[in-house]
Amino acid sequence: MMDPEMPSWQKAAQAKRQAILDAIPQQWRIQHVSPPLDVTGEFIQGFLTSREIEITEADAVAITAQTTSGNWSAVEVTEAFCHRAAIAHQLVNCLHEIFFEDALRVAKELDEHLAATGKPKGPLHGLPVSLKDQFHVKGVDTTMGYVGWIGTYQGKKDDPRHRVAESELVRELRNLGAVLFCKTSVPVTLMAGETANHIIGYTWNPKNRNLSSGGSSGGEGALIALRGSPAGFGTDIGGSVRIPASFNGIFGLRPSAGRMPYEGAANSIDGQNTILSVIGPLATSIGALKLVFKAVLSQEPWQYDPLSLPLPWREDIENLTKRLFTDKKGAASQLSFGILRHDGLVEPQPSVKVAIDFMERILRDLGHQVIEWDTGLCREGKEIASKTYDMDGGADLLSHIALSGEAEIPQCSVEPGKHLNASEVAALNVQKREYQKKYMDYWNSTSKLTTTGRPVDAVICPTAPHAAVIPGKYRHTGYTTFVNTLDYTSLVFPICRADKHLRSMTQRSEFLSELDRKIYEEYDAEIYHGGPIGLQLIGRRLEEEKIFTIAEYLCEQVKLYTGQEDLANPSIDL
Amino acid sequence: MMDPEMPSWQKAAQAKRQAILDAIPQQWRIQHVSPPLDVTGEFIQGFLTSREIEITEADAVAITAQTTSGNWSAVEVTEAFCHRAAIAHQLVNCLHEIFFEDALRVAKELDEHLAATGKPKGPLHGLPVSLKDQFHVKGVDTTMGYVGWIGTYQGKKDDPRHRVAESELVRELRNLGAVLFCKTSVPVTLMAGETANHIIGYTWNPKNRNLSSGGSSGGEGALIALRGSPAGFGTDIGGSVRIPASFNGIFGLRPSAGRMPYEGAANSIDGQNTILSVIGPLATSIGALKLVFKAVLSQEPWQYDPLSLPLPWREDIENLTKRLFTDKKGAASQLSFGILRHDGLVEPQPSVKVAIDFMERILRDLGHQVIEWDTGLCREGKEIASKTYDMDGGADLLSHIALSGEAEIPQCSVEPGKHLNASEVAALNVQKREYQKKYMDYWNSTSKLTTTGRPVDAVICPTAPHAAVIPGKYRHTGYTTFVNTLDYTSLVFPICRADKHLRSMTQRSEFLSELDRKIYEEYDAEIYHGGPIGLQLIGRRLEEEKIFTIAEYLCEQVKLYTGQEDLANPSIDL
After folding, report:
1. Confidence category of residue A504, pLDDT binned at 50, 70, 90
2. What is the pTM assigned to this prediction?
3. Which residues of A touch B303 (CB under 8 A)?
4. Contacts with B263 from chain A: Cβ below 8 Å
5. For B404, which of A270, B263, B292, B299 is 20 to 30 Å away at the CA?
């Protein structure tokens, strides 16, 4: 029952929250359950049939092998994921929109299509795909976590596009045969590394429900980690794909701007083009990540999205990259990697240092070269990003919050600030370009340090200074935002989970900054225990093919070293 | 002698003007000459030896065939162009910087290199290349026409980069073996379709010295039309490569942003990134244009310029395009073209209508399909461009004019206006993207109208509503600016010259706008007689390979129809 004294925005949020739950079929509701901290694996499996477990724990590559050949029906696969997503939402609050009936109708049509023609609709035939709640899908809202957007088109009442328009990515996914079934939670404003809003509350980390699922694509991260979706799409303007990937032990790609079609999606501060938000996939395996990325490119998004570049998947670059680490006779060749141990502002907590050291040991063992990467270059990239996010003094974000008068959420607070003018925006664009040039020159200069004679092939670096963060403690985005300023490509892969038993780090007494000290002091081995950690593999602008290829190779090696079958289910013990 | 009462900015401009003339060797000065209206061809040839004429009237393809094989020495070629450029400047005021001695030193080194190694330095070995005065070349100023920039680095006194730094394009051209020898005139502010500043005065049209050479790359246009340079590079944010190409009867390309490296070049309103200024080549033949464009791409500018895209010359697209108009058996296939007869705001003057009609006849005769292009879509593109140019209320341009206190030049006047804030800039970026999407959808929709089943292959349209314009009468940039807003690729090729004898157009009594009436009334068959006219061949974003390939084909056809050997020397009679 609603409290009559409750402010109207709270009533609206509560009604929407209830509507999401009401969209879950009765037989999939869970009640009187006391979930453990870790609700992945056995716990969530307890709600499912063995067949559902088999389907939902396959990755997108394995699933599409079955669905495109007709071995598994799209309906059965869709139903299994709908069921698991419904449970996931009830455990960690990861969904904004549920449209299982539509999904099952589409799946049925796909099954009929395959039966009638003998051919799959496309490479994603029958694959359920989840979407961050920025993409418009017909029949449902896009709230982006704003209470004032409920029942509107991006805050506009009575707009004919409401529940009718679809984003370009949605159109392409439908063409490819994907089955859309839910939209996932985001922090209000999108500008946060945790996911919280008045509609769904807080999206918890499935591996440790005391921790955050990250943000802003936190719903994607949590849902996919729980295997409630085999693959999905988020967006990243400061780490919003990479942080949830890292915090949930899954894979995520932040491609350079212009590869994935943003056309027709809702956004924060739309039109700000100093640093563009980009769409990136998240998935449970590197193969799945590549499958959906390549599938979207096959739709030639540049024919439909004015900001997309005419760059199909470049197989020549993929092949050239493979030859870098495999010589003509099939023997291993040397690659060279930069390792960024800290960003000059904040050192990573012990659990993340262990992950970096472990990765370095693998690279060295394999005979690759490791170069200490310049820690002095991140700061300016982060500063430019901060100025960019704040260029309108918070006007856009505050206007959407004001629509409903909803209360501030600490992690997503917006400070009204200085509103830049066009000259100041232009000066910021110049600063960004000069920063990109400086970084480019530095990267080029490493050809003098490598034994290959090439500049380093990629850079390894933390995604955040900590494992999946304690709520309210995400204080430093320096490890991800400089990549956005550079518009570099960055792929996050899972490597381990925080382990309270690891040898404690040497006591530190010197710090890079006050923030560094604070984050150091906030390390709590007990609370962080089990929080996933992923690392970034960073390539230069528009080097997605190269980075995918190197990542595939590295992930195979990490599996061999850790003895893990499934990297997206990392063990705590390295 | 200088007038002691003269304002200091006039003295500085006069001293610089004299310094440019002083850089011309004594034996190349011309005096007591009364040049005719048309100083091209026989008139300028009168100052040259037959050998110099042979060299300078070859196009860049023919020249590099001789210089890369050592048949012609780089020194001899360079000297011939220096001589002709010196004469050109004295006839039409097209140069800002002259550095013939440096050029001859470089040419000598190239000759030595070829003698020592047997190999050319690069594909442009020994080719003189001129540059618009936005590119920094060591040893000389970059004034961009601002009196306040004389003796400074972009207006900054005592900046260590002055006369030391070189733009990225300059570095690449040197790598390619090009010989840089002069920088060409621009209108102060760059934001004008005519070329005038207090340093060199007015850059006249070589074909008719009562008319304008266009702008803002007007010096390039005039110099190349006089064969004082075989090829050069300008920039285009609203037509600044295409207008001078059209007005001087030569070839010019406005590629999409990201293909040619702008890094390290001076610019107006640097950092404004709603519509990016782009670098484009100008040359005396389509082959020459392609040669220098491809040569720059071979330097992989994306490794050195953060705004360049990793798009090498795509031979696969070139070959696919060729196959569009030549089927497997070598027979002609049909292409389809949109023809934009007017931009919805201003109809072209009769001379330009004749050029469009002539081009249409050729296309139809060849069996290609011609589709009437939507005249309603240009207006918004032009409006967005205008808002973009003015987004800082003129602050940047006025600040550079204020450095010296120089007087206003009517064609380059800057009205202080509203300074947009970051939200308004973002809204403009959204408007631009939506406009691009609308245009994209329209272009895609033409697949329903063509017999090929493809959307139209390219669009033919005027470059301006008139031939090379009467000074002070460039009132409407609508034919070029919408292309910048769209970021489409556009290649201008010469087709004819205004002919006072042509049947006068049916008397018009209805007009699209007041401006339309004004420009109609300003048509003066007598004054415009002989003014060159070029047409735009427009492709979509980043379709340079396709547009080059279609343009090569069309230019061959135009030659056949007109009986002209050299399109860049168009006859008046069609």
Report:
1. low
2. 0.97
3. 440, 444
4. 433, 437
5. B263
